[in-house]
Amino acid sequence: MPTEISGSTGVNKIQDNTIVNADINSSAAIAGSKLVNNEYFNFKFATQNLPAATTLVTGALTEYSGVTEASNKVTITNGGIWQLNLFVCFAATGNANSRWMEHHLYRESVKIMDPRCFIINIDGSYEYTSVAGSVIVEVTAGDEIYLNAAYNQTATISDGYCSAITGRRIS
């Protein structure tokens, strides 16, 4: 049975910054909405065929709090320090002996991540590969996060490959 705190030691008497992790029961189920930085997003890429050019990669928010999405860009509602993660799995579909792929993650017009790959095509068929990366970056309210992809051959991203940009505000 819970202990009621009242009188001169009641909850309203607890001073700021006096409760520490050791004061919280390890089995406490604290809702994410009670945490200061409960802002996150999952921008899942749509199935799309990308040309041999630089292209804005399309998708949609599937889970989110503290962000909005328009024109295939995620807009941060509250500034702070964010961890952004990128995972792109794709099939290189051009019939070439070698292919390169660049994935440029932007905050506004500033490139903040640039994972690349180079594929040697052994048998002339589709080659499946992936790139991933993570970056911690300071953003301001209203900043847009988006991915441009550049390929020297056509490629396909499928929503079944779990390709996405994810982010979580960490301070």
Describe the protein.
The chain has 171 residues and is mostly beta strands. The chain has no helices and 14 strands. A hairpin with a 2-residue loop joins strand 5 and strand 6. The relative contact order is 0.27.
Q: In percent, how much strand structure appears in the residues?
A: over 45%
Biggest sheet overview: 7 strands, antiparallel
Secondary structural class? mainly beta
Q: Pick out the low-confidence regions.
A: none
Listing every helix as H and every strand as E from the N terminus to the C terminus, the arrangement reads EEEEEEEEEEEEEE
Helix residue percentage = under 10%
Gap between N and C termini: 35 Å
Mean pLDDT: 83
Instruction: Assign an overall shape.
Output: elongated
How many strands? 14
